[in-house]
Structures are given as C-alpha cells and as structure tokens.
Amino acid sequence: MKTLMTVLAVTTAFGTGAMAQEITHATAGVTYTNLSATGGSADLLSYGGSVEAAVNNFVFGAGFGGVSLDEGDVDLTSFSLDAAYEFVPGAFVFGRYRYAEVSVGGGSADTNSWSLGAEYTTGAVSFGLSYNDLDDVDEALYSGFINYAIDASTDVYFTGLRIDGESVFLLGTSRETDTYSVDAGYGWYEDDVDLLSVSMSYNVMPNVRLTGDIAHLSIGGADADYWGIGAGYKVAQNVWLDAAYGQVDAMGDDLDVFSVGIKFDLGKSKLASSRLNSNVTDLLPAALDGFSF
Questions:
Q1: Which helix (H) or strand (E) holds 218?
Q2: Is 61:51 a contact under the CB 8 Å cutoff?
Q3: Is 32 inside a domain boundary?
Q4: Residue 209: which domain range?
C-alpha cells in the first residue's frame, strides 16, 4: 500500500496544469499481483512509467519498467532514452538507447540496445521502420509498422520484427472513447506460437469503470487461456485505481490471479510509433497493467 500511495502522489503531481503544458505524454503505474494454485502462491510487482516532451521540432523521451517476482527472487528492469527530430511536417527520424537487466537468485545479466528509425504520417496513415542493434547478438533486428486511423478514436495497425531469419507479427485494433475502450490483437511467431488478446473497459459512471480481459496462447500445440474481470475508480484527474480477478487454464491446471494497481496517463505522444506501442501495451492483462517497457 505504501508503494501505491507513493505512485499516487507522484502521478497526481504530474497532472498539474503547469506540467501538462510542457509535456506531451506521461504515464506511471504500479500493479501488485498474487498468483495462486494448488501447492503454493507467488507475488508479482510490475511497474513502469514514461515521459515525453516536445521542444520546437525535437521530441525527447525517457521510460522505465520492471517486474519483480517474490520480492526479488526474479527481477527484470529496463530504462530507455529517446530523441526524435521532425524534418518536414509528419516525418521524423529518431534514435533510442535501452538498457535491460535480469536477475535470478544471486546471478544477473544485462544488455544494451540502440535503435535508429524513421516514420511518416500522411492523413490517416502512419508507417515507419527501424534498425536495432543488441549487445551479444550477431544479427541486427529490424522492425516496422503501419497504422490506419479510422477516426479520432479508432486505430488499426500491423507491426512486426525480424531477426536471424525469423519473424514475429502483430495485427491489432484500438478504440478509446469517453465511455469505453476496446483493444484486440492477434500475434504469431513462425508456425509455433499464436496469441489472441482482447482487453476492454466501460465507464458505468464518470469515475467508475468495469474491465475485462481474455487471452489465448498456443505454443507448439500446448494451449493456455486467461480471463479476468475487474473494476476501477478514478481517484484523481488522469489517475485510476483498478482491481481485478482472473484465471489461467494451462493444460488442465488452473492458476488464480488477483491484482490491484494504480495508473496515471496524461496526453498522447507526438510519435506514431510511440502511440502504437501504447496500444500494444493496452493488450496486456490487468496483472501487468503497470508494466511499461
């Protein structure tokens, strides 16, 4: 609870008028999740945040995120720095540095990555490509996306990445209105992995909402299904407190999932690639809602 109150204080401060006039997009969140099954349980803490500011033709950003399992037995953390330049209206070149570290027991490993890319928005269509170089990986990673804005509230997108001759793709859609939001996506990796995810919320009152998530994962013929329901309360401008319960069914075994989290979200990124990344993050189930990489 102390962590939740700390995040609430910080994110509420971000929401003041002075900060809102200087920052184009800012997020912060933390979620506690309890996973329980026959024979035991585990605690999961996921957290993350990002901030973006526009200065003339430049856009600067920074982000962080992490997941901690059972009070540090397993930790995954990451932070990133971004810079972009708009050289003609709608056209950006950008670069990103990202550091990630994973710790298991007494051991740890880390990696650095660099990305260079470009994107262009014309009317309702946005598209972009990027080149990514990762430490200790001989092959470069290439990624790209295309997004079509059906209207001011609805996007349809396709994104993918390719490394060492293998590809991962995601086809998705996102719709967000003052009353409800729906995100749906289907991802696949070669012929072995398929993922379907749907996440939704509905405001029954201006400060109260109901949420739901479903997901199906198939890996080499082994299937896992997730469903979750929850409710949220708007505790301050741009700040929601949510609680959810769900179940994972993997090969006949059930895993109960309970989560409570708080999230702050202000504005919208100037970069189409960052807006698409936000839509992809919205596909995550409630148990990882605070997670941001």
A1: strand 208-219
A2: yes
A3: yes
A4: 2-288
Strand residue runs (E) in 38-73: 40-55, 58-69
Do 290 and 48 meet the contact criterion of CB atoms below 8 Å apart? yes
Residue 286 confidence (pLDDT): 66
**194, 188 in Cβ contact below 8 A?**
yes
Record the pTM: 0.82
> In this structure, is residue 235 part of a structural domain?
yes
Q: What is the CATH number of the domain that holds 138?
A: 2.40.160
The answer to whether position 229 is within a domain reads: yes
Q: Which amino acid is at 241?
A: L
CA distance 272 to 120: 8
**Could you tell me the pLDDT band of residue 25, with boundaries at 50, 70 and 90?**
very high
pLDDT by residue (tens digit) across 138-177?
778 899 999 999 999 999 999 999 877 889 999 999 999 9
Angle (CA) 48 52 57, round 5°: 160
Q: In which residue are the tokens 């945040």 written?
A: 49
Flag whether 293 is in a domain: no
Please count the structural domains in the chain.
Answer: 1
Q: Are 274 and 292 in contact (CB under 8 A)?
A: no
Query: Can you tell me the distance from the alpha carbon of 174 to that of 276, in angstroms, rounded to the nearest whole number?
Result: 9
Structure tokens belonging to residue 108 = 């740890």
